[in-house]
Amino acid sequence: QIMKKVAVKFDPKTLHVPTHSAEKLSSMKDVDWNQFLKRVCSLLDSTEKNTGAARSKLNLLYYLCTVAVHKETARRLISSQLFPILIQQLRAAANWDIRAQVARVIGLLALHTPVLGENVPVSEAVILLTELIRENFRNSKLKQCLLPALGELLYLIAVEEEKGEHPRECWAVPSAAYTVLMRCLREG
Q1: What proportion of the chain, given as a percentage, has pLDDT over 70?
Q2: DSSP characters over 19-59
Q3: Per its UniProt record, what InterPro entries does this chain match (predicted)?
Q4: Long-range pairs, 137-144, Cβ under 8 A, ≥24
Q5: Global pTM?
Q6: In the 8-state DSSP scheme, what is residue 169?
Q7: How far is C-alpha 34 from the geometric centre of its chain's CA atoms?
Q8: What is the CATH architecture of 15-187?
Q9: DSSP string covering 95-121, please?
Q10: C-alpha–C-alpha distance, residues 158 and 152, integer Å
Q11: CB neighbours (10 Å) of residue 7?
């Protein structure tokens, strides 16, 4: 069963980064962009374990969901140091709400990125999403959070490989990803 996602809303008052629009982010000069990214990455990479820190991370992820729908901003974000931090958060976050929102950000970035650089670690994200789905196969709620991101990444890789601009080894997709995806489709 495919569930329509609820629109995300972030609280700009409690967000610890400037709430620039996606258009402003896409047109930022490199110096300002790097400062913004540095703040976002340090907030996401924070190891604080209290409830306020988790709420703050979720709010930041909601904000990233709103700006990731702009093509140029998505391209800049997926090609930046933010993407490896998102993968790390997907792997290490103790809170499944954070993991679900990280997966949503990854899926939105993959959906809206017009061009994928060959240095973007999408293979690592595909492998991690596949493992998480396999480990939590009986949890349909988690699968509904993780499967869209996996599907968007696989589609993005397929589109890039079809263009033929990068070598096929650039984004290796393990066969386990297709096996897990087919099993999910078959068993629901």
Answers
A1: 92
A2: ---HHHHHT--HHHHHHHHHHHHHHHT----SHHHHHHHHH
A3: ARM-like, ARM-type_fold, ULK4
A4: 137/180, 137/183, 137/184, 140/188, 142/96, 142/100, 143/184, 144/2, 144/3
A5: 0.88
A6: G
A7: 19
A8: Alpha Horseshoe (1.25)
A9: -HHHHHHHHHHHHHHHHH-SS--TTS-
A10: 10
A11: 8
Q: Domain limits of the chain?
A: 15-187
Quick one: which of 59, 74, 63 has its CA closest to 107?
74
Tokens 């670690």 belong to residue: 121
State which amino acid sits at residue 157. I
For 69, phi then psi, to 5°, come to: -85, -5
Rounded Cα–Cα distance for residues 54 and 148 (Å):
23
CB-CB neighbours of 124 under 10 Å: 17
pLDDT score, position 1: 47
Ramachandran category for residue 37: left, alpha or beta (phi over 0 → left; psi -120 to 50 → alpha): alpha
Residue 92 CA to residue 71 CA, distance in Å, equals 28
Q: What is the DSSP letter of 17?
A: S
pLDDT tens, 155-188?
999 888 888 776 666 678 888 888 888 888 888 6
Give me the sign of the Cα torsion angle 129, 126, 123, 180.
positive
Q: Which residue has the tokens 């990854």?
A: 106
CA gap 74, 167 in Å, rounded: 23
pLDDT in tens, 113-141: 988 888 888 989 999 999 999 998 888 88
